[in-house]
Structure formats: structure tokens, C-alpha cells
Amino acid sequence: MGNITFWTTWSSSERLFSIIWPAIILYLIMKLLVEKMWGKNREAVQRFKTRRDTLFAKFEELSNPTKLLNDERIVNDNTSVENIENTFKRILEMDFFELKRRLQEDEYNAYTVLAAFVWRANKVNREINCITEMIKEAFDIAEKLDKDNKDGKPKGPLFGLPFSVKSNFYVEGYDVTVGLGKYLEKPKTTTCPMVQFLIDQGAIPFCLTNVPQGLLSYVSSNPLYGTTKNPWDFSRTPGGSSGGEAALLAAGGSSFGIGSDLAGSLRIPAAFCGLTTLKPTQDRLYVTDTHGGLPGRGRLGLSFGFYTRTVQEQEFLLSLIVGNKNYLELCPMSSPARLEKVPDTNEKLLIGWFVDDGFNPVVPSNRRAVEETINALKAQGHEVVEFKLSEVSKDFDPFTIANMLFRNVMPDNGAYMAEMYSNEPYDKHMKLFIRLIRWKQGFVVRNLLRFLVMPIVGRCISKRLACIGTARNPNLAACRQNQENTDIFKLHWIRYWKKLNIDALICPSFITPAQPFEYPAELSSGAFITGLFNMLDVPAGVVPVSPVNNDDIKVLNDEKTGFRVNGDRLLEKQREAAQESSGLPNSVQVVTLPNCEEMCIRVMKAVEKTTDGMKRLQWKDRRTVEPPVASNTVPKAATSTDCFERISVEMVVHPNSNIPSSNPLLT
């Protein structure tokens, strides 16, 4: 062996070729072995799609005004199709509290309101593909609510309000597939306590909504259900993993939605779709009977919450469930501490802020959202102070924190995810992400990436990508140490917060506005700005403050004074993802200390009150706006502006919207 000197005699190009060609062969072998189409699940997939289509057709018939003529279950004049449609439109134009009031006062019944929302949701779903399955019991629930009401039984506070359910929540009798064929035909035998509690309060779950394949992404797309579009721009994602929920509510197809958040899964879709949400501290609203995405996850708080249009709606729903004794009967692990009423006060606050987390800069529109919000709050008399992540602890620079976060996301280095994706077709928008996870399980590929590829990537392509690529727990001791370091960092965070003496923190909601479908798989670095607050397990809410404007795009493309990429390929991709985003929702994130949800809501209200907010999407009756298509012409694909008007909505503060303590159903 000592006489073999071919390596030293080869030129640099020959050496490079000798490394590249085995890698190409390995790639082709892995692609052949790993990417199988459904396998033994093929027949189950076909059976599911048949059942799904049948149920969609049934719900379309149950909500079709032409089928509801003279149906006594429909109130407010059911004698003509036009009258029924007008009733439905009036219902759908109401805000949450107005609709709630009219249901409580018997101006509408549960069946009519459900039919209206299903009528709209079916139309919306045909355009943006946000619903995975209809809940067949929904109309039966509505009929029973109306019968009980006629019999004099008391109404729950959510009587007759239809809501959608993220499809990772268990509902008895329904599969939880997270977009994977292997989980079909394995219906759950329990219902998630959060869903059951809302049913007990009179709300009606009527559909399950789309998620990313395997949940761990912010593009809601999978081979089983397809790709969900953002209602603001059909060429972009609504985010994930709760993307189907956010898309449906933003499109006006539900009265509110529910979702989970492990690294931004509530907040990213809220930011992309112009909605309000709040991720509580994990144990303030503990929820079981869901697919959490990563069983045995590291130090990441898994939170659950709501999608609403306003902060007031958010406060009402959280106040209803948090600490409620009836919810504690369903889920005793949840905190018994009730959410206290947030007082309307002119007391001034001290608010921290940052626009750069030190790891991944945000594009100019998202930076402007924070700066304008801080200036507006300052003009209202609040004090502000800059929060510098680099000063939290000298032992934890932003890249160290990011490495720690990504190791917490996959404490097993992706082994669970790799197994989950086995024998499944890869979603077209997630192929890169899935391949990297699966290939890294192999000894050869893992070490090639670690010792050869990632050092080159860090020097030549992107130090952020290298940070993600090298985030690995080599053994159990390293995993334990990373979790201990996480706990230490939390203490440093709280001490720095106390040193500044701030009440809340305002920062960017994400690194870009809503992205085209192909970018999330390449921009996992963006999850740092949201996942950080899961790792800290603190309340974090999102409030829309303005649309992206043309000046934001001009600054984005100004390399000298705008968004500097400095040769970083990931930042170049980020800049590409934010192009042509004018008019899309632009939000900020509001953060407080653990278990301080009341303060988070208070600051979210202040932000909502002092900023412009977003217009609202309202469905168009396309029959009246589309010219007839010639018989020999292929109709063009619909766009967001074909389907939705952008309407200005005056923010209304509803009196008596908080929970009355005298109501025995709410104590």
C-alpha cells in the first residue's frame, strides 16, 4: 500500500472529480432506494380519496341554496335561492362578536350559520385547497344544538359558531395522517380535549385543514392532500404547519381556527395571512391527543392556540379555555390559573424591541413593521429600549443559540423524521428538506457532510446554512448537555430582561412576507426568529400592522443601503423570496415573560390600536365579474384578485365581550 502514490500524482481537478463522481452515484442509489411511491399504501390512498370526494360532494349539497328551498332548518326566509344566498352573505360579512350575539339572541340558528360557512368554505377550498376532510357529524351537531335550544336548554358561549381544526388534532373516527399515506385507515379513538371543550361550549367543528408533509415545515403541502395556496396571493404559501387553518380563516371560510406551534407553526401562517394569534406558555394551555410533530422533542415548548381576526377575539377565546375547570376535567395537566381580564388602562409601558436577531437579518418590509410600530407606541407615551440578543450572555452568541435551537428541534438528528418519510413519495416543495434528513442518517453521507461539505459551505456559500447543517447531537451526552445549555440560556434571557426592566418585547414576525412555494425548504434559517420563543417557552403573539409597500421592494434591492447579502447564498434566496410581495400582510411579534399572557394581550391590543393593520379579504361572486369564456378557449387559472376583494374594515371594540363570571358554563 505504501507504494501507491496515485493521489499525490493527480492534479487538483482529478482529485475533485474522484470525490464528485462517487457522490453522484451515491445520490442516484439513494434516490432509487428512498423515494418509493406509496408502496403498500397505494390502495388505502385511493380508498381515502374516494371517501373524501364523496364527503365533499355531500357537504356541497347540504349547503347548496337550491337544495335548501323551504327547508325549515334554514331561518330568515327560505322561500327562494336568492333570499337564502343573501342570508348566507349577511352571516359571512359579520365579525366574530356580531355573529356570536345574533346566535345568542336567536336571530340565526346553528344550522343556518353552519350551512353558510360550509357554502363559502367549499368555494374557497376549490381555489386554495386548504381543507383535507369534512367532519361528517357537523350538521348533526348543529341540528342537535337547535333542538336543545328549542327545548329550553341553556346555550354555551360559542353556540353555533363553526370552526376549523388543524388536521394534527385527534377527532374520534378520523385519521391523523400529517400528509403521509402510512397513517391512513388508522382512525383515532379519542378526541383532543381542546376540540371537545369547544364542542361543549357550543361551537361546531366542520372540517380538518391541511399541513406540511410530516408537519416540520412552513409550506403546507403534501402528496396526499396537495398544496395549500395563500388567499392573498395564490403563487405563495400561507405558511405552516398550521397553514390550512390560517388560509381558510383569512379567506372567510371559518369563524375561528385552532392550531399548534412548535417552532412558529401558529405565528408564521398568521404573519403570512394577516391574522392574529398567540402562542401561550406550554403549560398555560396544555393539550393532549394531537400529533405534535416531534415526539420526545428537546427543550421546545409545544403550544396551542387560536387564529382570529382581532386581538379582542383572541382574548375572548383564550379567556374561555385557559384555567377553565371544565377544561381541566378534560386535560388535568393544563394550568388552573385563569386568564385574567386585561384592563383598559392608560398606564404607560416600557417595551423592548429589536429588528435583527444577529443570526438571520429580516427583509426591509419586516424591519419597517417593527420600527413603525415602536415609533407609534412611543408617540402614545410608552417608553422603548433596544433589546440586543448579543448582550443576553457572552457565552451564547446568536449562532451558538441557533445551533442549540436546531439541535433541540431534532435531538435524535432526524432519525424519527427519516423513518416517518420512508416508503412515501416526497412532496414536490419539500424534497430537498426530506432528502437531507434521510441521507444524513447514513454514516458515509453524514460524515461527508460534516467534515467535507459543511466546512466548504460555511466558507463559500452560507455560514447560516453551515450552522443548520452542523447542528447535531453526536451522542446522548451531547444531547443532554445541549438541553442543560438551553436551561442556562433561559436564565440568562430572563436576567437580561429584568435588567432592562421591560414589560414586553416587539420584534419581526418572520424573515420575509409570504414566500413562493419553492423557498421554505431552502430557508429553514427563518425558523430561528420564531423557534427561539418555543425554546424559551414564553408567550409570543402576532399582530398584522400594515401591508408590504413598493418602497420596501426598492430598499430590498438596494445592496448598499437596503438588504445586504454579502455573498451569502441563503440571504440571496431570502431576497428572491421577498420580491413582488407588495400588498401582502406585514406583521410584528409580541413577546413576554413565561406565563404573562395577559401582558402579551395588552401589548398586542396597543399595537393593533396604534397601527394601520390590514384590509380584509372578501369573496367575490365570480359569476357577476367574469366575462363568458369562449367554447374553444382554455380558461385561465384564477388568481387571488379574481376571487377576493380587499376591503377596509373599521376596528370595532365590542362591549361585554369578555367572559361574564356569572355564567355557570364558564366557571
UniProtKB/TrEMBL annotation:
PANTHER family assigned: FATTY ACID AMIDE HYDROLASE, MONOGLYCERIDE LIPASE FAAH-4
Q: What keywords tag this UniProt record?
A: Hydrolase
The record ties this protein, via Pfam families, to: Amidase
A GO MF label: fatty acid amide hydrolase activity
Could you give a single Gene Ontology term from the biological process aspect?
fatty acid catabolic process
Q: Which family does it belong to?
A: Belongs to the amidase family.
Protein species of origin? Caenorhabditis tropicalis
Q: Where is the Amidase domain?
A: 113-600
Q: Which residues form a coiled coil?
A: none
* Protein name (record): Amidase domain-containing protein
